[in-house]
């Protein structure tokens, strides 16, 4: 399968000392750590598939640290759809998140044999102590696919009206996590434009713990959570 590398420079909250710089990160930092994120449809909790993650490598270069993370996406019948990898970086104690991490293998599987170009902005994530109502920078993602016969397929995702809802302790099959909760508006255009909202929970040393996606009328469409973690 085609491997697409996503640059993920994550900007949140766990205390780590790399060389002489402290980094607070939202990604597991030990080589060999594995975790699974499972997705479900609507309120009936119908299983839709999963993504398996693993920290493949950790490279320290002075004050900078790079983590290589592999992902494998499966459908609801446990059929493997797509492999990819991305990098998490700490540069002089600062983490930033590239919006490209939101492109999962299920979305890219149909284009695995085509030329895919991804243009992603930074995706701001706040400190765990951010107060409710704190506003965050917008994020954007553009995917361009060069299909057979000269046909080009473009998709854009804009995430706006982002704000901190608060802090919440969340329990999933993988454990209990102290999370920052973010609400945001999601506009997607691919032939037609759709508008909805999402709610996301992020935990120190882990990253995304749970997410819920809604239509414009706030009807729950899909949701996901971390279901296993092996540190």
How would you briefly describe this protein structure?
The protein has 231 residues and is an all-beta fold. It has one helix spanning 105-108; strands at residues 5-8, 15-18, 21-24, 34-41, 46-61, 64-75, 80-90, 97-98, 115-120, 122-123, 139-146, 152-172, 175-190, 192-203, 207-215, 220-230.
Task: Describe the secondary structure blueprint for this structure.
Elements (H helix, E strand, L loop, with lengths): L4 E4 L6 E4 L2 E4 L9 E8 L4 E16 L2 E12 L4 E11 L6 E2 L6 H4 L6 E6 L1 E2 L15 E8 L5 E21 L2 E16 L1 E12 L3 E9 L4 E11 L1
Parallel strand pairs: 1-7
Antiparallel strand pairs: 2-3, 4-5, 4-16, 5-6, 6-7, 8-10, 9-11, 11-12, 12-13, 13-14, 14-15, 15-16
Describe the structure.
This protein is mostly beta strands. The chain has one domain: Beta Barrel (YmcC-like fold), CATH 2.40.360. It has one helix and 16 strands. The longest helix is centred in the middle third of the chain and has 4 residues, at 105-108. The two termini are 27 Å apart. The model is unreliable at 1-21 (pLDDT under 50).
Task: Estimate the helix proportion, in percent.
Answer: under 10%
For the CA atoms, what is the radius of gyration?
17 Å
Terminal CA distance reads 27 Å
The profile of the biggest β sheet is:
12 strands, mixed
Number of strands: 16
Order of helices and strands: EEEEEEEEHEEEEEEEE
How many structural units, i.e. domains?
1
Oligomeric nature of the chains? single chain
Architecture (CATH level 2) name: Beta Barrel
CATH topology: YmcC-like fold
Tally of separate helices: 1
* Proportion of residues in β-strands: over 45%
CATH class term: Mainly Beta
Q: Compute the average pLDDT.
A: 81
Unreliable spans are 1-21
């Amino acid at each position: 399968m085609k491997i697409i590398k996503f640059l993920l420079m994550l900007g949140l909250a766990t205390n780590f000392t790399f060389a002489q710089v402290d980094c607070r990160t939202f990604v597991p930092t030990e080589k060999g750590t594995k975790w699974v994120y499972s997705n479900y449809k609507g309120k009936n909790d119908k299983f839709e598939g999963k993504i398996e993650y693993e920290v493949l490598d950790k490279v320290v270069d002075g004050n900078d640290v790079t983590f290589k993370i592999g992902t494998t996406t499966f459908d609801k019948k446990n059929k493997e759809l797509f492999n990819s990898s991305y990098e998490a970086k700490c540069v002089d104690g600062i983490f930033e998140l590239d919006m490209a991490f939101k492109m999962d293998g299920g979305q890219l599987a149909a284009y695995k044999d085509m030329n895919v170009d991804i243009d992603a902005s930074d995706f701001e994530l706040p400190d765990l102590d951010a107060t409710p109502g704190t506003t965050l920078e917008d994020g954007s993602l553009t995917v361009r696919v060069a299909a057979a016969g000269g046909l080009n397929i473009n998709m854009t995702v804009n995430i706006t009206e982002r704000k901190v809802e608060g802090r919440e302790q969340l329990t999933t099959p993988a454990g209990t996590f102290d999370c920052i909760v973010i609400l945001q508006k999601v506009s997607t255009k691919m032939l037609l434009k759709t508008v909805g909202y999402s709610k996301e929970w992020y935990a120190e040393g882990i990253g995304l713990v749970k997410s819920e996606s809604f239509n414009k009328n706030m009807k729950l469409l899909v949701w996901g959570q971390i279901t296993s973690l092996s540190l």
